[in-house]
């Protein structure tokens, strides 16, 4: 499993620019918003957490369609299905590698981008924490979509269509937790715990659904 983790990390970084493409897209989304809403710094600070979360969600979708594409192209997908290691565990490791290569850089880039949105320290810290907890859920959801679309043409579009509706609760609770952290007397813990629970639920459902879809795609 360790070898698979490092192999997938290398593939995720090399394929299409990996983390750099996601971070650049994230920066582009955040940079464009002020041109649309104007130079009102107070307004930017209010909508900043939502903008960062939307940007991270869209950036996290990049490359999800390639999660199982390399194995499909080189024929190793059949080997993964026949190996003794449970396929669900293999999918879980691949999700972890994908998040480390594409999701974690978004989390690390968020404090710098928060400054452009005129956010204070509490909002920056809450945004980074919620992205750290919430972005893995997007990867787990995306794994199921990528497995369904692995054998289909234009699979990337299908993955986005499948993932976005399921990721909306993650977006809602992520943004709600940030606003609760900076606005009194709204409590931070309830929405943050809901966000954590969603990630844990998708960590179970996503790999199981992806494994089932991969088996079905080879039948």
UniProtKB/TrEMBL annotation:
Keywords: Cell inner membrane, Cell membrane, Cytochrome c-type biogenesis, Membrane, Transmembrane, Transmembrane helix, Transport
Keyword field contains Protein biosynthesis: no
Coiled-coil annotated spans: none
A GO BP annotation: cytochrome complex assembly
One Pfam family this sequence matches: CcmB
GO molecular function: heme transmembrane transporter activity
Membrane topology: Multi-pass membrane protein
Domain of life where this protein originates: Bacteria
TM helices/strands, residue ranges: 12-37, 43-64, 85-109, 121-150, 157-180, 192-214
Family annotation (InterPro entries): Cyt_c_biogenesis_CcmB (IPR003544), Cyt_c_CcmB_bac (IPR026031)
GO cellular component: plasma membrane
Family to which this protein belongs: Belongs to the CcmB/CycW/HelB family.
Function: Required for the export of heme to the periplasm for the biogenesis of c-type cytochromes.
UniProt-recorded name of the protein: Heme exporter protein B
Natural source organism: Rhizobium subbaraonis
């Amino acid at each position: 499993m360790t070898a698979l983790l490092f192999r997938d990390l290398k593939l995720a970084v090399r394929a299409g620019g990996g983390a750099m493409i996601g971070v650049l897209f994230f920066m582009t989304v955040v940079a464009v918003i002020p041109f649309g809403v104007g130079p009102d710094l107070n307004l930017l600070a209010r909508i900043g957490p939502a903008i960062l979360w939307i940007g991270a969600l869209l950036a996290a979708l990049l490359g999800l369609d390639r999660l199982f594409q390399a194995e499909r192209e080189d024929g190793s997908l059949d080997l993964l299905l026949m190996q003794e290691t449970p396929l669900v565990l293999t999918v879980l490791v691949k999700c972890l590698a994908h998040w480390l290569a594409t999701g974690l850089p978004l989390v690390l880039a968020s404090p710098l981008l928060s400054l452009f949105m005129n956010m204070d320290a509490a909002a920056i810290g809450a945004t980074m924490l919620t992205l750290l907890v919430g972005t893995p859920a997007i990867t787990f959801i995306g794994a199921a979509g990528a497995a369904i679309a692995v054998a289909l043409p234009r699979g990337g579009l299908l993955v986005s269509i499948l993932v976005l509706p399921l990721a909306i609760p993650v977006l809602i609770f992520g943004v709600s937790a940030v606003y609760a952290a900076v606005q009194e007397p709204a409590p931070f813990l309830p929405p943050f715990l809901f966000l954590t629970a969603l990630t844990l639920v998708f960590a179970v459902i996503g790999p199981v659904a992806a494994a089932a879809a991969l088996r079905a795609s080879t039948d």
